[in-house]
Design brief:
heterodimer; A: 505 residues; mainly alpha; Cytochrome C Oxidase, Chain A; B: 198 residues; alpha+beta; Cytochrome Bc1 Complex, Chain D, domain 2; 2 domains; two-stranded antiparallel ribbon; two-stranded antiparallel sheet; 37% helix
Chain lengths: 505, 198
């Protein structure tokens, strides 16, 4: 009886495997994409892009669950609590954006260096190791969730530090993978040719890997711990990531619009000077209230107020170049997302950041939905958009450099995906801003941030309505994402016309 | 006159980028040494861990024009006087517990974290604990059994049971007490403690 049951299970499993293999075959027949036509480096890039999109979907899914819990606090209580959903929401975001960036770099590396990637084999191993580790970390987040107050919990389950919750073992793995990636990049440029873009990229990756190490230590003293924690978070997203985007943008503008190398590289240096010149000491705006000395109020306030300047420069750069080339591009969706990036970065990171960066304002807005409002528009505007633009560049090449413009078959899909995603995120941003204003007034200024004050603010109709609107716009964002995935899988399929890619002047 | 002026040349901006980055980073490193020195446990800004033996309050300082921690007199925690080393161990257990239980993805600590639950910076001083005599017991009960001792203030938002042991709960309370003594430059503003008279 027992063995019969076991045989049955094996048989069923076999059927299941066969069936899923069949589905996979059907899927491949449907998308009609053959990666053997791509160069080896770009095959690896595509792997990174695929995982990035899957994690993007996870980000939105868990974001929706967390948004629902603001309205129905009993939803998934003690099963998937807010803390778990929120952690997966923000971790999936950080990781998918990094996957996107890695993919972009592998995509442009052969083209930019003029040679094949050195040590690509190790790069491929690193991809599989990283992806396995990410999957394992997420499973532990979802099924183990928390541990006792011991070092082993921080090493194996969760470090409990916003954005870099990954347990210590995964931290070490991440650094090893980044070093492999770094080796691929440096060795390839050394074998081929260096360029301004290559130089900036290399130095930026040194900073990116080095800074992560600053967040890998446990400390009892919470002031010291948050001090280093911000080194990672701020100097990643408000400095090194922005420069990485500058690099990707520079290369994309050459390819998309045919902008001259000298122009994009000069702009890149200007951006680096402005970005690091304001962003490195702009770190001080996180040191207002964590116990650190008072001089950070002045330094952080001043330099972070300058942080929007490079973002203005990037808007000018992108829009000017697009105009100067009469918007002549072989890839309309990509250019549209590049323009969305320029404005999204400026408004989300620049304007929304500036609005609450001065300490006199931040005293009331710190730790309220203001930060969530800023976070949503900034991460989307600065980083999601550029990755999506690059996905379109990649899929166009993968389809055989086909025509990809406003008049393409099913063009409504990319246009609606663009519209829904942008409208959804903007709507969430405004809803959260309203909630943040209300919290600043009621909880912070009037009630003085006590627990009673916190809940008084959470109970106000202005706040609760805002949370409903946030959920609504979250659903809009999700529908845009579904459309985007569908479009990325199908755009250019069956298209015969070749794109007229601009030549560099 | 087709020559590129210096201010628009690639080499000028390349050098500027390098100098600005190196200069900013150097300043940050110098400030980091100073900030870490000024915020080591046992300094004016971040008191030693045995501050948990003392009475801690948070009051508006007219001269400085901001709220400041006020450390004054003895107020033992769990009726015991801790040595600095014992206090450090207890706070350490509490800190580790807050990380292992992922507190920061609902709460904010020093204003950083998530916004689904109240800020913990001055939680030790919150009027919700009613009186200094009732506080320790209420906090332990809440941490160990949050469903039954929920503090939802009518919102229905309850802390889940995180399996916190009694030792861990004591550690968390010690950690919160110690954290409330940190000079946070007047954040949060206008916070009325359970010692406040009005």
């Amino acid at each position: 009886m027992k063995s019969g049951g076991l045989a049955g299970v094996i048989e069923n499993a076999g059927v299941l495997v066969d069936r899923s293999r069949g589905y996979w075959q059907d899927f491949q027949n449907w998308v009609q994409l053959d990666s053997s036509t791509l160069s080896p480096g770009r095959q690896l890039a595509v792997k990174y892009f695929i995982v990035a999109v899957i994690l993007f979907c996870a980000q939105i899914l868990f974001g929706l669950l967390a948004a629902l819990q603001f309205i129905f606090p009993g939803f998934l209580y003690e099963f998937l609590d807010f803390s778990v959903n929120r952690m997966v929401h923000i971790n999936a975001m950080i990781v998918w954006m990094l996957y996107g960036f890695f993919g972009c770099i592998y995509w442009l590396l052969e083209d930019e260096s003029g040679t094949e990637i050195v040590g690509l084999k190790y790069g491929i191993w690193a991809f599989w190791i990283l992806t396995g580790a990410v999957a394992l970390v997420v499973l532990v987040y979802l099924f183990v969730q928390i541990g006792p107050g011991k070092d082993s919990s921080l090493w194996l389950i969760n470090e409990g530090r916003e954005y870099i919750e990954a347990p210590r073992w995964a931290d070490i793995g991440i650094v090893a993978v980044v070093l492999t990636f770094f080796y691929n990049v440096v060795a390839t440029f050394s074998k081929g040719k260096w360029s301004g873009i290559a130089g900036v990229l290399t130095l930026d990756l040194v900073a990116l890997a080095g800074l992560y190490v600053a967040g890998m230590f446990y400390m009892t003293n919470i002031t010291h711990e948050q001090y280093w924690w911000w080194w990672v978070i701020h100097l990643w997203v408000e400095a090194t990531w922005e420069v990485l985007v500058g690099v990707i943008m520079a290369w994309s503008l050459m390819k998309l619009l045919g902008v001259r190398r000298k122009i994009v590289e000069t702009w890149l240096y200007i951006e680096v000077a402005l970005m690091f010149g304001s962003g490195i000491l702009g770190l001080g705006h996180h040191y207002f209230w964590i116990g650190t000395p008072e001089y950070w109020l002045t330094i952080g306030g001043f330099f972070s107020a300058l942080e929007p300047i490079p973002l203005v420069a990037m808007v000018v750069h992108a829009v000017y170049d697009a105009g100067a080339h009469s918007f002549k591009t072989g890839n309309h969706p990509a250019l549209a997302w590049i323009i969305a990036q320029a404005f999204g970065n400026f408004f989300g990171a620049g304007v929304w950041g500036f609005m609450h960066t001065l300490p006199q304002i931040n005293l009331y807005t710190h730790g309220t939905q203001w930060s969530a409002s800023h976070g949503h528009l900034a991460f989307f505007g600065a980083y999601a958009t550029i990755n999506i633009a690059f996905f379109y560049l990649a899929i166009q090449h993968w389809r055989g450099d086909v025509w990809m413009a406003g008049g393409i078959k099913h063009a409504w899909r990319w246009k609606w995906a663009l519209g829904l995603l942008n409208a959804g995120v903007l709507g969430m941003t405004i809803a959260l801003l309203i909630a943040g204003y209300e919290q600043s007034f009621v909880e912070r200024a009037v009630e003085g941030s006590t627990w009673g004050g916190y809940f008084a603010a959470q109970s106000q109709p202005a706040f609760q309505n805002a949370m409903t609107w946030r959920l609504f716009f979250g659903l809009i964002t999700a529908s845009g994402l579904v459309l985007l995935v569908w479009d990325l899988l199908t755009i250019g399929k069956g298209e015969e016309r070749k794109a007229e890619m601009p030549q560099q002047a | 006159m087709n020559e590129t002026p210096l201010w628009a040349s690639e080499s000028f901006w390349k050098k500027t980028a390098i100098w600005v980055t190196a200069g900013s980073f150097l300043i940050l490193v110098v400030l980091t040494f100073d900030s870490l020195k000024q915020t080591t446990a046992g300094t004016q800004r971040v008191p030693a861990y045995d501050v948990i033996n003392k009475k801690i309050d948070y009051q508006f300082d007219k001269e400085l024009n901001k709220f400041m921690p006020v450390i004054d007199g003895e107020e033992l925690l769990f009726g015991k006087e801790y040595t600095e080393e014992e206090a450090r161990e207890l706070v350490d257990l509490g800190k580790k517990t807050t990380q292992a239980k992922n507190c920061m993805n609902c709460h904010t600590l020093l204003g950083n974290g998530a916004y689904y639950a109240p800020d913990l910076t001055k939680a030790w001083l919150d009027q919700g604990w009613i009186s200094p005599e009732m506080r320790e017991d209420m906090m332990i009960q809440f941490l160990m059994n949050p469903e039954k001792n929920a503090r939802t203030f009518g919102t229905g938002r309850k802390m889940p049971n995180l399996g916190i042991t009694e030792a861990e709960a004591k550690g968390v309370v010690a950690f919160l007490k110690w954290m409330s003594s940190i000079d946070t430059n007047g954040f949060p503003y206008n916070f009325k403690t359970l010692y406040a008279e009005d």
